[in-house]
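Q: What does the assembly look like in three dimensions?
Context provided by user:
Components: two
Sequences:
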Amino acid sequence: MSKQITNKNTAIEKLKKGSLLTAVICAAAALADLYGAFCSVYICLSDQFGMTAGTRFQAVEIFTAFVIVAGIVLTAGIMFFRIAGNGIPFTGQTVRSLNIIGILFMLRAILPPLAGTLISGSEAFHIAHPDLFSLIITGFYTVIEGLMFLFIANIIHYGSMLQLESDETL
Amino acid sequence: MDYNHDVLKEQASARIRQFAKTALVISVLFFIGQTFLYLRRIIWNLAYPNPLPGMTPIGYPTGDLIVKCILTDSTLILLTVLFSRLRKTGLPFTQTNSILLTAAGILQGLYAVLPAFFWLGTVLRYNAFSEPHIYLQFFRPNVMNYLSLSFCILLLFLARTFRYGAALQQESDETL
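A: Here is the predicted structure of the complete assembly.
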């Protein structure tokens, strides 16, 4: 029994250190994504780049993608900061964060081209994406990534029940 | 209360089995697709080492492709084994699953970094060691694979989480 407690405490300490490092990386990535979003807005609004319908479509698409990805890494960063605080990953909040990340990944597949089409029109969509097949494949991969996070959320949910059982036993 | 807890755990385990079945199918399809694409390019490179005028060269050196193929396939095999174990038992938190995730994470880390080192080695053969800007280009997104690096971090973090979960699972089983 004491070996179990030592194993658990060692695992918690390792999780705290790993989570803190990952949280810092996520924070840096979120800043980089927000900077990218700002650059795409600047390119879209500035007169010096000679924007056509197709390039405006792409700028809106890139802006939407950067904002969604910034949301993903920010959610992940907050989750990792929380885990770094107490070293316990199996909580309801972690499950909720992972579900949000999974849903944002799926939105990442759909929203950017949709936003571009709403702002620049369907003709600009065909100019920006002459090869529809590769757009569908990229969207498919992003949906798979979203499903993967929903899968992980289910696993963490199972873990949260084990954690609750452990806390009640103690 | 205990009965509810067991029922909820069973339901969560059943959901994990369903997800694992889908993940297993997807990982097998990815394995077949990636292997086919890599082998096609490697065979092309070996058959046409000096492309004829008008033919598009594949772009990557053969050694680079072989290493990437081995690393990708190894990662996918490990994940397939993990998903098939999850599909069978519905219990994610075991030491074996943690080891599988650690190994997959290390392989993804190598996938992110090794081709960049190959690139650096090729460049340093033709450029003087005293040009520092070459080393900074090591970190460019088209040299270092940041997507694989993110997967590496995710898999290693999951491996540690699974190790903690394995300790909780053992405690739960012993309590029962």
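Follow-up: Residues 2-45 of chain A form the longest helix (44 residues).
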